[in-house]
Amino acid sequence: MATAMGATALGKKNEGNAARFITRSKAIKQLQVSLPLFRKVCILKGVFPREPKKKVKGNHHTYYHLKDVSYIQHEPLLEILREIRAYQHKVKKAEAKKNPDRATLLRQRSPAYKLDKIVLQRYPKFLDALRDLDDCLTMVHLFAALPAIEGCIEVKRIHNCRRLAHEWQAYISRTHRLRKVFVSVKGIYYQAEVKGQKVTWLAPHPLQQVVTDDDDFNIMLNFLEFYEALLAFANCHLYHSINVKYPPILDPRLEALAADHYALSRYFDANSRSSAWDCQESSLSGSGKVESQQIGPLVDESELRLAQLQHQLSSNEPGALMHLVEDVPGEDEEDNDTRECKKLFKDMKFFLNREVYRDSLLFIIPAFGGIVSWQGDGAPFEEDDDSITHQIIDRPRQDGKICGREYVHPQWVYDCVNARIILPTGNYLMGRDPPPHLSPFVDNDSFETEGVINRAEAEAEVAKEKRKKMKAHEKQHHHELIMELEGVTDSSSISNIDNLSADREEPDHDYEQVEEDNRIMSEIELSRWVRGVIEGMRISRQRKKHLDDVIRQRRRNLRRT
């Protein structure tokens, strides 16, 4: 009997949630790694905690699926991370023994890894990667604006984030894929449409970021490590889709002047010219064999030719530098939105003052077909250029204005982009309060409804004032007739009575005006929800009127009795 019970206890298996889920502590013991290393591998592999219906070990534990843990256990990256950890212990040991040569040698021989295979495993299709770019772009733009912190955030990583962000913005601006922009307190929201997928990200304002000691960047840096590889993969694929080589070769002079957008636009222009030159050479070649021999140059020769073409461009020619090249072979067919965005700022030339946020407008204006320059080094044209149509300013000018040029607030550019039309500049002149900057990411029916209701209420107030004046004039005329019949012609008494009659407040129960307001609102085209709200207000007013009539009738009956 005891033997049978022992066999039953040994042969007992876990079933249900106990067999499918495992706690974090057991997962760490099974993988034989530390907690920070376990978090890093989970972030890189895309494994996240689960919420089972029945928590066997209690609610205070974190659970993972057993298949996810076994998926991590067979990952080759896990072994490389263990080797890196062992090398770090060797480096610390060499430093403790005051052997800097050995520590330096160990750092140079430290094993490295790449995340290309993990990116391809998590995103077999490129559209899957585009769907997950929202958080990736937001994180990269955030670290591109942060200052370097010794021992935490390296300068190299910040420069890499800035480079990836500018490369992404250059592609969006080059292909006119930007759709919506909204400036909020948190930062500037952008939305682009790439390959039929809407990508939304947040870029912080260009202010001095204050980093406190309470911030823990370890987990954020793990996410950033994967996001850098993902965004580099996306940029490479997008650049190759328009026949542009990746990574781009930029002018070092413009990079030193922090004019990355300008340098990337020059790179696009030079690359498109080189591709056109290659096509022309291949068409002029004689036989197929000779053509194949001429089209297959070495990589160094092509890069050298590209650099030569880039430096041959005139630095004062805005059409060749800031103008986005049209009819590039290999580019996807443009849809209606792209054509509309491409022609919004066509034949317009903008100049940015020093106080204006330069990076955002350098990204937005070329994305909608405009040409832009700025006040500073490396600009394609100066402020005294006669062909400038709009100058973006954010503070009153001390010197005089140039005739034939519009001086507008930066909000005018954002509102024109969201409205897809060129708005009048009268409300955006310096010294005037610009109109409210509404978000294009929400349905503006509520804002339109509020405007309609406010308009109707204003019209009701105007009509009420007119009726007051008409009644006051009627009373005044009646009083003048009475005084004339009695033979009194004292103008002061008439004016005093007039003022008293005019100052009397009319009762609020103006049911005729309520019906008139309802009629005005019914004539305006509103959404179903707004019509329902207005109908409810109308019914409540009718009920109130009915109750007032009933109360008035009861009072009359009481007086009669």
From TrEMBL:
It holds the Pfam family Pescadillo_N. Its main location: nucleus. InterPro entries: BRCT_dom (IPR001357), BRCT_dom_sf (IPR036420), PES (IPR010613). One of its GO terms (molecular function) is RNA binding. Residues 340-430 form the BRCT domain. Keywords: Nucleus, Ribosome biogenesis, rRNA processing. One of its GO terms (cellular component) is PeBoW complex. Residues 493-513 are annotated as: Disordered. Coiled coil: none annotated. Belongs to the pescadillo family. This is Pescadillo homolog. It comes from Prunus avium (Cherry).
